[in-house]
User: Fold this.
Amino acid sequence: MSAGGASDGQHGGEGPRPVRRVGLGGVMFDDVNLEEAVAGLDRAIAGGIRGYVVTMNVDFVVRFRQDAAFRVACERAALRVADGMPIIWGTRLLGRPLRARVAGADLVPALCRLAAGRGHTVFFLGGKPGVADMAARRLEARFPGLRVAGTYSPPDRFEPEGAAAEAAVHVVNEARPALLFVALGSPKQELWVHRHWDRLDTTVALCVGAALDFAAGTQVRAPGWMQRAGLEWLWRLALEPERLWKRYLVRDAAFVGIFLTEWWRERIKTPGR
Assistant:
């Protein structure tokens, strides 16, 4: 987020507007790097400006076009960042490049470092039983002074509405954290935050997917060279083939068609490009 400047569009959610936004596949991404995102969220917390953040990868772009409820949840976010190198490459090829990937797995430690220095309280919601607790302990050890307001791992088969969803709202509101990290898996985490946002007693919430597993050490992130080469999906597929094969090899293949359609429209609009 940036403190000032005009935006190429209007956010549905609250919070400071970034200077520039870039479209791909119907999604308007905020053109910020990790440091700018953290600085903007710091200002939002300091000013009591509420908003939630979604970290969008290729799967999000595909789902955004197919699922109306998910699309609304993402459009209402105060900040939408690109968490995937194919998105960065796609915007470059379209001639309107996003400057940097901002991964949820990088935002979590960066914001915990900030919170430890500023005295902001944090809450970890999601993951399998014990994961949120483990992530909290490891991050407290890594960032002395980090104030963990609480942790909560919802039961299996969690849904954005219903008794389990209400219980999650209740435990968060009892803790009243400045920063809420939500790792319920997509699209459940985005739908839960959106549907209960007006009742959640937190300033900033971030939908971060597997980032809590990485923080807890229950999953190992891909080597840096694979992240830079856009192959992190292949690493995760190799680790969890039964759970992820359909997402990566079937559903996300639609991203190629989405990009090519947009690229062709740009070629027609700007001949000789």
In short: Residues 25 and 258 are 6 Å apart (CA to CA). The longest helix spans residues 254-269. Strands lie at 21-24, 27-30, 51-56, 79-82, 121-126, 147-152, 179-183, 204-207.
